[in-house]
Design goal:
The complex is a heterodimer of chains A (about 575) and B (about 425). Chain A has about 575 residues and is mainly alpha-helical. Chain A contains 24 helices and two strands. In chain A, helix 1 packs antiparallel against helix 24 and helix 13 crosses helix 18. The termini of chain A are close together. Chain B is about 70% helix and about 5% strand. The N terminus of chain B is likely disordered. Classes of the chains: A mainly alpha (about 575), B mainly alpha (about 425).
Chain lengths: ~575, ~425
């Protein structure tokens, strides 16, 4: 058992790695990058370089300027860089035309499409420090004056270095702060070493002299040895950097690209909403499904069993988002819900305004009363005829059922009359003022009140499936020999069922609990969206639509880790509960 | 099917009883499932014959055109291939099915006559060939029609008809010489599921619009009817895709066992780590402008693990059987053993899984379009439900909701019936 668990846990690590790789690839190869909106169009180099600086730092901070899996930028030659630069330079060339005629002379060049210009400019920017050596050499030696100028412009941006740990969760150490200060000073300094196209030869020479001294000083950074290149190929990529953060303790899932807060913190903050919702749901499902399953197994093939089967089957096929929307429509807006409604008709409401409080007996009230009385009379009749059905518990049960019938018929009548009634809040997890004003008990009641509808929507579907499992589980054991023995030795039917049959018949559905674990978090996404409960499901939905990569990635990783754990637990719990199964 | 001859029984009689005829007999005994089966066939028919019920073009119209010349046209038939009216490839496919359906039924009768009196083997072969030929034909024609977007001018025949009637009435009143009174036969509901009429936004139910119009002036009833096509296609195509992947992987894993099995199992475990709905949502959200085909493909690629596990299990059971050993020993190529000898015997659990799968895929697509992530151009039920929710229109919540509910529960009914028929041990 122990070795089996350890083995499973060890297998989990590569599985988890591949899972993270797959999500990572899906997210990163998807078209579009976060924060790219508003960054379209050509940037002329000098003046808008400042305006673009925010986006460049954003990309740098989220590693979006890095290659995804393998960094092969060391293989780029100077000619590759020149080819990239030439797109922009051709576009802005004084002789550039849409199409070149022979009469235009040899200096004419075709204007590249504007999309290419934007793309290549982005690419050069993303290449960052990796092409500083090439840019320097172009600035020094290229025969074309414009190329030299453009290379210096790029150099001023591309030679900027990244600050360390700017958005990390922990406090920065003094050394790091000192390092960042130096980097920042250098970044500011190199950014001034530029010249305009019409600059004089002296100005150009001065700028180039600055670059010469700077480059000879920092040559080691940009001209890499073979070993450094090989390491860079793997290390300097988006995926490695993500995993590097992830493998630390506590795991660093990065920061949200929307508000720069740590993802892990945000997810943990959302957990309480999701967990409350799901624990309530799972608890309710098991509490109702097991007795229901036992009931229909014991009463197999009776009328009650058949009705239950049909009802549960229908519930199983009802989409939860449909029921959610319907309940929201019917039970959350309109006149206040009353147990014994005053019930003015809608026409009266329209005629005299909303403040009518009529107390006379109306048709609706008659219906409510009639249905309830009919039920009470029917059960009283059965009790009188059948002595087995008498007793205080029966009477109490009948009373409770009568109350439920009364309340639901009253609700239906009010919904029919007023189109919808205000019975439950329109969503959210708690009242806005809850945290500040309510006592703990009030707070709990408030949360429970808000969660009635969502929990109902989540419960009924699972209920149907699980009670079927419970039923067939019990039917499996009910024919077993030891049940016959138990009956034969004269035990009462209740003891036989509850003590002998249910304990064994419920093994399969208990082990299902393990597979419930992952759904605790993500299973309720649609309901969370409909009811506006700020749990993980809603968070994932928002992150997807706003392209917050780190958040999506983080949620999926946590989710898949939980799934792996859940699978293991459910396998182990089989062995724990049922001694016939063992792992060797 | 292996039919061993017992002493005394004529071989023809044994030949008549096949595995599937037993299953069919069992299935028929379950009245609810049997009813569900025919209701599902009805749904498919509704999807195919949707334009007969709902389309804004008349079957036949005769009117005086601008020059006063009498014209007779049959716009309904030609509009079936009009890509302006039926933008979606799915609609084109169903329209071609609609046109071909009389021929298909006729050829079915002919084959049935021909097959009569022949042994089962020949009969099933004939039927297989018929269905195969029709499928290939349909797909080819659909592709050809889809690639050639015809450019009919857009004519509003309802307008022409109404104007013609008004003119002739006017002529009657004023006593002028009467122009030709237009005559036309429209489908019962002459509304479009797709063309927005901005003058008629959120019209209440009743009158011209049986279920009212949505927030862009599109007829809700028409969208319900055409939504059947989307839902059924999503279900069937997505399930076919994941069956294709799952069955092949599962078969290879189960047949070869050992390392192949190990690899496929790891792959399945990896796929199971992703919460299906969340992964599908994410993938669809990250596609630029997703079409209905993207949605199907994504559902198909994500959900293949179920059938793979089932087929693997069946193969592991069957690979030790004598008939497999016999086939291998007689030199049948390996792929043929896998796909012709073992696979047909391993398919019954997959069939049940697929039936439930169609229902699940329909639900997933409805959820996606309810969340606004699906194909915006397709008349999906989920989208209408979303519009109904946003505008607080009860009828637009109830109609698509019940459409989804009925479709899903019919398919679940059939699935349960099929499961009981295929595996008598499970029946209680």
């Amino acid at each position: 058992m122990f070795t089996y668990t350890v083995k499973r846990l060890l297998i989990m690590i590569p599985t988890f790695f591949v899972v993270s790789l797959i999500i990572f690839l899906v997210l990163n190869f998807a078209p579009g990058r976060p924060g790219q909106a508003g960054q379209q169009g050509i940037r002329s180099t000098a003046e808008s370089a400042n305006a673009n600086e925010g986006y460049r730092i954003f990309k740098e901070q989220f590693n979006l300027d890095k290659p995804i899996l393998l960094n092969t930028r060391w293989a780029m030659s100077e000619d590759d860089v020149i080819a990239l630069m030439s797109v922009y330079l051709d576009f802005t060339h004084p002789n550039a035309k849409e199409a070149c005629e022979p009469a235009d002379g040899a200096d004419c060049r075709v204007k590249p499409p504007i999309g290419d210009v934007v793309r290549t400019q982005d690419e050069i920017e993303d290449l960052g420090n990796d092409i500083v050596a090439h840019l320097y050499s172009i600035a020094k030696t290229h025969p074309d004056e414009r190329y030299r100028w453009y290379a210096v412009q790029r150099l001023a941006v591309n030679s900027k270095r990244k600050l360390v740990g700017e958005f990390d969760t922990g406090k920065l150490s003094d050394e790091t702060k000192q390092f960042n200060r130096e980097v920042d000073q250098e970044n500011t300094l190199v950014f001034t070493w530029r010249y305009e196209q019409d600059a004089t030869a002296e100005e150009k020479a001065a700028v180039m002299a600055n670059w010469d001294t700077w480059y000879t000083k920092h040559k080691g950074r940009y001209e890499l040895s073979g070993g450094q290149t090989a390491a860079k190929t793997v290390v300097d990529t988006r995926f490695f950097r993500y995993w590097d953060n992830l493998a630390s303790w506590p795991p660093n899932l990065g920061v949200s690209s929307l508000d720069r807060k740590p993802i892990l913190e945000k997810i943990v903050g959302k957990l309480k909403y999701s967990l409350t919702l799901s624990f309530g749901t799972v608890l309710l499902i098991y509490l109702i499904a097991v007795p229901l399953g036992v009931f229909s197994a014991v009463k197999k093939d009776t009328f009650a069993d058949k009705v239950l089967t049909v009802v549960l089957f229908a519930l199983y096929s009802l989409p939860s988002f449909f029921v959610g929307v319907l309940l929201l429509h019917w039970l959350t807006v309109g006149p206040d819900w009353q147990l014994w409604p005053g019930l003015p008709t809608p026409q009266e409401l329209a005629a005299t305004g909303a403040e009518v409080t009529q107390t006379g007996v109306t048709v609706g009230q008659c219906i409510i009363l009639a249905v309830t009385l009919f039920y009470v009379a029917f059960s009283a009749h059965k009790m009188i005829k059948n002595p087995e059905r008498r007793g205080p518990w029966r009477i109490l049960g009948t009373g409770i059922v009568a109350l439920i019938i009364f309340a639901s018929v009253s609700t239906i009548v009010q919904v029919v009359l007023f189109d919808s009634v205000n019975m439950f809040p329109t969503g959210r997890f708690e009242s806005p003022q809850a945290a500040a004003e309510f006592t703990t008990l009030e707070h709990l009641v408030d949360i429970a009140y808000h969660l009635v509808l969502p929990v109902f929507c989540l419960t009924y579907g699972g209920l149907a499936a699980l009670s079927r499992y419970a039923r067939s589980g019990l039917l499996d054991v009910i024919r077993a020999d030891y049940i016959r023995t138990a009956r034969a030795k004269g035990l009462s039917e209740g003891v036989v069922i509850i003590k002998h049959a249910v304990r064994n018949g419920m093994i399969p559905i208990l082990t299902l609990l393990g597979s419930v674990l992952p759904s605790l978090i993500g299973g309720s996404i649609v309901i969370e969206i409909i009811f506006g409960i700020p749990g993980l499901g809603l968070y994932l939905f928002e992150s997807i639509t706003l392209r917050d990569y780190n958040a999506v990635m983080g949620i999926f990783l946590i989710q898949s880790a939980l799934t792996l754990l859940g699978l293991l637990i459910s396998d182990l719990s089989y062995a724990l509960v049922d001694p016939r199964i063992s792992f060797k | 099917m292996d039919s061993q001859q017992d002493g005394g029984v004529p071989i023809d009689a044994i030949d008549e009883v096949t595995y599937w005829s037993i299953v069919w007999g069992q299935f028929k005994k379950n009245k609810l499932a049997y009813g569900g089966f025919w209701a599902t066939i009805g749904l498919v028919a509704l999807a195919i014959y949707a334009p007969v019920i709902v389309l804004e073009r008349p079957f036949y119209i005769s009117y005086a055109n601008a020059e006063g010349v009498s014209v007779t046209e049959f716009p309904w038939f030609w509009s079936l291939f009009d890509r302006l009216l039926f933008e979606n490839g799915i609609d084109v496919f169903f329209n071609i099915l609609l046109v071909a359906s009389p021929l298909a039924i006729l050829s079915g009768f002919v084959i049935a006559r021909m097959a009569k009196g022949n042994p089962v083997k020949i009969r099933s072969k004939l039927w297989r060939r018929l269905v195969g030929t029709w499928l290939v034909l349909l797909v080819v024609v659909t592709v050809v029609v889809s690639l050639n977007p015809s450019s009919y001018p857009f004519v509003d025949y309802r307008d022409i008809y109404a104007q013609g009637v008004a003119q002739s009435e006017l002529a009657k009143v004023t006593g002028k010489e009467a122009t030709q009174i237009p005559s036309a036969i429209f489908p019962p509901v002459a509304q479009s599921f797709r063309n927005a009429e901005l003058s008629e936004v959120l019209v209440d139910a009743g009158g011209n619009h049986l279920l009212g119009t949505d927030n862009r002036g599109r007829d809700v009833f028409a969208r319900m009817i055409y939504g059947t096509r989307i839902a059924l296609t999503i279900g069937v195509v997505a399930v076919s895709i994941y069956l294709f992947i799952g069955v092949i992987l599962g078969a290879l894993a189960g047949f070869f066992a050992g390392k192949v099995d190990m690899a496929v199992l790891r792959l399945i475990e990896i796929m199971r780590c992703f919460p299906t709905l969340l992964l599908i949502m994410t993938l669809v959200a990250f596609v630029d402008d997703p079409t209905i085909w993207h949605v199907m493909l994504i559902i198909g690629v994500v959900r293949w693990t179920g059938p793979a596990r089932l087929v693997r299990g069946e193969f592991l059971k069957l690979r030790g059987e004598d008939f497999v050993a016999a086939a291998v020993a007689s030199g049948v190529p390996q792929w043929r053993v896998i796909f012709r000898h073992v696979l047909p015997n391993a398919l019954s659990p997959v069939l049940v899984n697929a039936t439930f799968g169609v229902a699940v895929c329909i639900l997933i697509e409805a959820t996606l379009s309810f969340l606004g992530l699906g194909d915006a151009s397709a008349p999906s039920w989920g989208e209408t439900l979303n519009i109904g929710k946003q505008n607080g229109e009860l009828i637009m919540i109830l109609a698509p909701g019940f459409a989804i509910f009925i479709t899903v529960s019919l398919l679940n009914l059939v699935g349960e019936g099929l499961r009981d028929a295929l595996d008598p041990k499970l029946r209680r």
